[in-house]
Amino acid sequence: MQNRSMKMLGASAALVLGLTACSGGGAGSDEGDGGGDAAPEDMTVGVAMPTQTYERWLNDGASVEEGLEELGYTADLQFADDDIPTQQQQIDQMITQEYDALIIASIDGSALTSQLDAAAAADIPVISYDRLLTNSENVDFYVTFDNFAVGQEQARALLYGLGVLDENFEEAEDAPEETLNVELFAGSLDDNNARFFWDGAMDVLEPYIEDGTLAVPSGQTTIEQAATQRWEQETAQERMENLITSDYRGSDAELDGVLSPADPLSRGIINALRSAGMGDDIESGLPIVTGQDAEIASVSLIAEGVQHSTIFKDTRNLADEAVNAADAFLNGEEPEANDTESYDNGSAVIPSYLLPVEMILEENYEEILVESDFYTEEQVESGQQ
């Protein structure tokens, strides 16, 4: 590892500027007289979130609920604890109770077709939240982050940590000459976003694998081989333990880095690496590990020099855009999309609003996360909110 001072995250900054330039005023920012007759206090919006065991979904649900209530709407926030039948039942009840709009972050984007059909029959607009609802034309709008860019940024973070790229994300003049060994992890295949993350990461990494800069000793280079069902930390830890046993223990191969698509997976991977004696932190030889979602436990590890990076998706802004979209529909308007081409759910191309992402490193977590009041320094130090 090199001692580096962070000048600017060039790729992240360009992404922020690019999306800002094309975003207009955000979802629901169109001017108009509005077509809704009922007052907000007479309307209820159902908010279906997948689980309470993943820190970000608790934050997302609370932010959406707060935003809706600030506009005067009643919000019914429900978590399904990663159980598909529970989420189906929750949404069925929202439709039966004639809610005025639905905001859905699915467990499995393909498992809610009958609920989407029922919502359409009842003229209830459906906003897909971060995870795309698939195989149905009855999805009215999608709010998410630029998920392909998330994968690209994770790959760039990995290459930066390995010394292949410099602090400007250009080819490093003093890049290692030897081939570097990495292993690849992907998300849950029932989450459409997992494929965007993977495709974005491989878009960056494949040229380095092909030219011999990187090698994957396990040979597991497809998303099916790398997938982690339900994004579970324990599953990722077990797979990393198996990879260490089969490809590194008793061999001359040294593991230099791991592409991890999400922070819970990252922490499981780090547990496995530490248990195998591969170092306690990066300075002592721990392989470079990426992440996503800037969970407080992982940000704390980044501050301590243990986890190398994560991708920050400001869910406060995502919640705002979901609320804006719901408010637009409930006022007889169309939410404003900044992408009408990328998200084909298998039955229709869904108009979408994409938000930018930022790479978090030890060098910049304070500026991006603490100074924006997303976390306090005390929370970072304790690893708890």
UniProtKB/TrEMBL annotation:
Q: Enumerate the CDD domains for this protein.
A: PBP1_ChvE
Domain of life of the organism encoding this protein: Bacteria
Q: Which InterPro entries match?
A: Bact_Solute-Bind_Prot2, ChvE-like, Peripla_BP_I, SBP_2_dom
Q: Where in the cell is it found?
A: Cell envelope
* Residues annotated as domain Periplasmic binding protein: 45-334
Q: Which residues form the signal peptide?
A: 1-26
Arranged from A to Z, the UniProt key words for this protein are:
Signal, Sugar transport, Transport
One of its Pfam families is Peripla_BP_4
Q: What is this protein identified as? A: Multiple sugar transport system substrate-binding protein
Which source organism? Nesterenkonia halotolerans
